[in-house]
Amino acid sequence: MTLHNDSVADILERETKTAIASWLSKVNAEKDIITVPLSTEDRCAHLPEMFHDIVARLRDPLPLGTRALMSDAAHDHGCIRREQGYTAAMIVEESRMLQVSIFKTLQLHLGELDARVVLEDVMIIADEVDSQLAQAMSSYIFEANTDAQPIEA
Q: Is residue 63 a part of any domain in this protein?
């Protein structure tokens, strides 16, 4: 039996496009999300940077539950999704689908991974995706509150 030593970060870095395609197919099948018509490019624009951030966190992990570094991409994602007409629930659903797509990608490559670190890395991924979701939601809510403010002359 051959022992594989690929890291979760290696797999995600190598399979980013596949994971994004998996995510896009899930999103395109979700009737509530596709009510906002977007090109594939616009719908997926935030994902390459998000995968970069996830891989970076896997390679230089913070303790679980630690606030991750601020992500400009996550902040911008919340603002852009608001401008595009997304609801807060749609952003959360996209994030959930992203985690499922990432975990399915890892499942397909489980035989290539060092099993001793997979569970910890999965927890890091979930922590990072949730951290970025929180950052996106903060900017989304800030924009919503700003839009609700009266315009002063």
A: yes
